Amino acid sequence: MSLLSCFELGIVDRLRDNPGMSATELADAVGTKPDAVEQLLFLMVKEGFVAHDETSGGYALDALAHVEEADLKRALRYMNLIKVTALRQLFYLTESARTGTVVGLKELYGAGGTLYDAVADHQDLNDAWLPLMNTVTANADPWFFDRIEIPSGAQVLDLAGNTGLGAIHAYQYKKSPGLRVTTFDLPEKEAEALANFRAEGLADHLSFVGGNVFDSIPTGFDTVLIKHFLDMFDRADVLRILRGVHGSLNPGGQVHILVPVYPEDITRTDNYNVDFFPAFFIGCTMGQGGPQKLSVYQRWLEECGFTVTNAVTKDAAEIPPDVIPVQAVISATKNA
Amino acid sequence: MSLLSCFELGIVDRLRDNPGMSATELADAVGTKPDAVEQLLFLMVKEGFVAHDETSGGYALDALAHVEEADLKRALRYMNLIKVTALRQLFYLTESARTGTVVGLKELYGAGGTLYDAVADHQDLNDAWLPLMNTVTANADPWFFDRIEIPSGAQVLDLAGNTGLGAIHAYQYKKSPGLRVTTFDLPEKEAEALANFRAEGLADHLSFVGGNVFDSIPTGFDTVLIKHFLDMFDRADVLRILRGVHGSLNPGGQVHILVPVYPEDITRTDNYNVDFFPAFFIGCTMGQGGPQKLSVYQRWLEECGFTVTNAVTKDAAEIPPDVIPVQAVISATKNA
Asked: Where is each O-methyltransferase C-terminal domain found (chains A, B) (predicted)?
């Protein structure tokens, strides 16, 4: 928060525009006291983000001067997500784990459901969450579609496809004669999804079916996509979903899953999913869930009547160090 | 919070008593779901706190098995302090820096003042804060009194001495014929201070004067002690306090200060004061303040008419790594 506060107060932007400003000049510019500016900048100097000239008393960006704007924006989005959707909520982590509900959302927002419910009613939560989700999707989808095959003319179901972005991407990346992609999600998403399809000029190729994955999933598909979804649930519900998908697929049909995974060697230090997701899912978003190891998802798919044909974890070295989800793609074929 | 939650849920205690328990057994024992236990323990395994036997599925304490109980209790007190007095409050750090007030206390507790005011009305804040403050005092006072001299029979003032613990320690560590120690603090502390003096059988040697350091400090003292206090204020108020102390001392009198300090080389990694205190004082306790470097306190003392005679920072290597305040003692004589 010391770092984020230096951004929120505008200290970093002032130093970018005017290197060498003193604590007093910065305080005047951003509307606080010089003492507070000095205190907050101590840690920035310790970490090498900001430089301090002891003789002149002036501050200047140090490492922060060399961060590309796109990288900075993305990192700030992550910091803001954690601030708004997690920092206060995690105070209630233990109670959330005990009850299987997001106690922090209830205490802080009076919201009884999940974060995904609460973003509809609370602008601050939505503003912190949506830009990051869009960034994650924009970064992950090209990688995902590059690693899966969708047969020409296939009937595709995008499970829990929200308002249709996944269906649009699927059609754009995998276009073929007769290809049809159906978004399946709660009925209240239908109007916005159809509007999105029309806006992209894809209304003839994309459709929407309303329903709940735990009730019944529509049938007759060659391919089912499950993106950013399985990690939201405990084992029993993941198995229910996978069995439902099994029923929705034609014989020989395929499911392609995009999901963050823990490393097989849990002690690896280059994968931050373990540091972030357990507390985030249990205490901040769902009151349950969390990613698994790739091998666990493979085993669960086999238990549900699939044969895994491909399973690849993204190389952590390809992911900017501020980005938390290390994703995997898992493809599996419905057993005869 | 993932770590603290494993303690709060009782998972660590169960594993200490019964190494090898599975996630299901642990979940039954502590009243949550096996899925949540697994998720929360992933990070414990990554960090080497807990071991997981992949074959049996059993968990056992790893590094946590070798932590002395006293060390563990102290570290848990720190974690609980940060959870209760800082985690949610820091969401409002930027607003606190802008307003010079603890916005988090107001938003979360409806409390208009400082943390030191709020602990009187809010049991959870007090329960998190007081045991830690007592630990800090118990650890710091022997070191502090070992490094200062109080003349035989001196008249001593313990500035902002709260309910008298500092006066009691001063008498016990520095007893001499005629030694008299006066606690100076807000009038509402008097009754409890006097009761504490009586309980220790020291009512003949200790006394209490009610007042506010920013109004007028009683005069005629040979020695003034300022412990855990200067770091609560911005520069202007620290100077007001030091000038007031100057006025309260007899010619040639001495002030002895115990205060956390930042290292002279701010980039040193073995002093966590820089990581913790700016955000803690501005966002969680005072809406202002924070420690300074030892050299800054020395300079401020010289500005206020003192000659510094001794200034020692505690060796960070002597402090357990979970303990945040790296303290210094500074002694100075009132100039003629």
From this structure: 106-271
